[in-house]
Amino acid sequence: MRLWHGLLASLWTTLRQLRRRDTLQYPEQQPKLGERWRGRPILTRDPDGEERCVACELCSAVCPTHCIALEGADRPNGRRFAQSFRINFARCIYCGLCEEACPTVAIQLSPEFAFAKTERGDFVYHKEALLIDGTGKHPEYRYYDHAGVRTQALPEPRNCDPRSNLP
């Protein structure tokens, strides 16, 4: 008797699911994504139009698959920037740790999820392909304003004895 009860219960569960119509006609109908969907990483800009990335390499350090590689450089005004930035999407697991580690909110995860390639080498995106014109999720955020860092080189103080601790 227990066998028949279990069999009929599982058959009833299967028949109930046949009424549901969850199938979408993709790509004509796009699926609804959650608010915290983690899609393709992008690099954003300041509201002024400059790159937000200061090449701190925290995103590269925290990435569990080591798919992020970057090199930093200094501008004449003292501000750092990423001279080269590369993400290998064939290795990326879209965990979002790079977005959480970024102090400048430069790297963000976009809702884009459908980007298929036929060659493995096409999954390596460089800085030009990752950098967008907008500010992303945080439109008014400026890292250097919040950090209190001056981007202009300070002049040497006058009448300073380098062997003394006094000002």
TrEMBL record:
Q: Look up the record and report any one GO term of the cellular component aspect.
A: plasma membrane
| Protein encoded by which gene | nuoI
**Residue stretches in coiled coil:** none
Q: Which PANTHER family match?
A: NADH DEHYDROGENASE [UBIQUINONE] IRON-SULFUR PROTEIN 8, MITOCHONDRIAL, NADH DEHYDROGENASE UBIQUINONE IRON-SULFUR PROTEIN 8, MITOCHONDRIAL
Q: Which Pfam families match?
A: Fer4_7
Q: Which GO terms describe its biological process?
A: aerobic respiration
The UniProt record lists the keyword 4Fe-4S: yes
Write out the similarity annotation.
Belongs to the complex I 23 kDa subunit family.
Q: Identify this protein by name.
A: NADH-quinone oxidoreductase subunit I
The cross-references to InterPro entries, in alphabetical order and at most eight, read: 4Fe4S_Fe-S-bd, 4Fe4S_Fe_S_CS, NADH_quinone_OxRdtase_chainI
- The main place the protein resides is membrane
